[in-house]
Amino acid sequence: MKRIWLLFSQTVTVLVAAYFVVATLQPDWIRKGAIRSGAGIALIEAPPSATGHVPPGSLSGAARKASPAVVSINTSTAPARDPRSSDPWFRFFFGDQGNEPQAGLGSGVIVSPDGYILTNNHVVEGADEIDVTLSDSRRARARVVGTDPETDLAILKVELDKLPVIVLGNSDELAVGDVVLAIGNPFGVGQTVTSGIVSALGRSQLGINTFENFIQTDAAINPGNSGGALVDVNGNLLGINTAIYSRSGGSLGIGFAIPVSTARMVLDGIVREGKVTRGWIGVEPNELSPELAETFGVKAAEGVIITGVLQDGPAAQGGMRPGDVIVQVAGKPVTNVAGLLSSVAALRPGEAATFQVQRGNRVMDLELTPGVRPQQRRTRQQR
């Protein structure tokens, strides 16, 4: 027993002495996780994370899910040729004018394995060539399937296999304060993800499109983001990023996106019929004001007042008159001109709908059968 105790005490003594020597001469050897860099500097590294671990609050899952379906769009437009450019004297004094093609930049979202891409009309308008670059570096020439300038949307198509496709979310369920991500190619630096919240819903009367029902967000949107994706925390598409309010050209935290519900309607209409068919009743609407209400002798407190009715148009045939105040369309309240335009446009031409109007002191229902909204003419803009 004495020999065992003596052996134990000697072993402990040796170990303590060894620890003292190492702690004095090489203290980094006993520090947890200590390593030496290439320059011989003692460093401590964090242990590797568990496989699949996502830090609390991280949005990396949504970004990974949605980003592959967001593409970069590069456009090229041939220069407008000056008829005098062939004159040698003109070239002598002014040089070659406008011989360089004009380039444009934007983003798009792949919404179908068939190669359909949603983007903004202003991204591709007037372009002679459209090239699409995927996140996996594949490139393809895109063709325009159709455009809808009134919502500033366009549908492109590429012929590629195994395309990543985004999942469509429900923009009607959005609420102010929801967290969102904006994905696109700002300034051509490469695909970028920014985050923010939904700042407001149903933004209209901005003078951007004919039909406005924008999602407002403070997620940074910059030039080149147009046509990119606004997604929720699950990576589902909620909108197409379209415009920003800015005095400098950069993001000031006020960006606008077209809801995916609108984009889906435009996509279906263009692919099915080659155009978007909207309802139309042939009236001249105005915001209800005390002056107009007094002029037409109407006592309505809210709604849209009609100051003109097209002769033999759908509204005239249904009994609508100047001075009527439209309060509801197909059971949905109407409070402003933008809302009336959107509600009427959503009606199916040829199918009767109920319009609740106030005429003087009397509220009545009119059955109107919408016609097809005439296509708006737009001149080709130079990019």
pLDDT averaged over residues: 83
Kindly give the count of domains.
Answer: 3
How much of the sequence lies in strands comes to: 25-35%
| CATH class group of the largest domain | Mainly Beta
Class based on secondary structure composition and strand pairing: alpha+beta
Could you characterize what this model shows?
- With 383 residues, the protein is of the alpha+beta class.
- The protein folds into three domains: 69-157, Beta Barrel (Thrombin, subunit H); 167-273, Thrombin, subunit H; 279-372, PDZ domain (Pdz3 Domain, Roll), CATH 2.30.42.10.
- The chain has helices spanning 2-25, 60-66, 88-94, 121-124, 260-273, 290-296, 314-317, 337-345; strands at 34-36, 42-44, 70-77, 102-110, 116-120, 129-133, 139-141, 143-148, 153-157, 167-168, 179-184, 192-203, 214-217, 229-231, 236-244, 255-259, 279-280, 283-287, 304-309, 325-329, 332-333, 353-359, 362-368, 371-372.
- The strands form five sheets. Strands 7-6-3-4-5-9-8 form a seven-stranded antiparallel sheet.
- Strand 20 and strand 21 (332-333) form a beta hairpin.
- Residues 378-383 have low confidence and may be disordered.
Short description, anyone?
By secondary structure, the chain is of the alpha+beta class. It contains eight helices and 24 strands.
List keywords for this structure.
24 strands, elongated, Thrombin, subunit H, 3 domains, 383 residues, seven-stranded antiparallel β-sheet, Pdz3 Domain, 20% helix
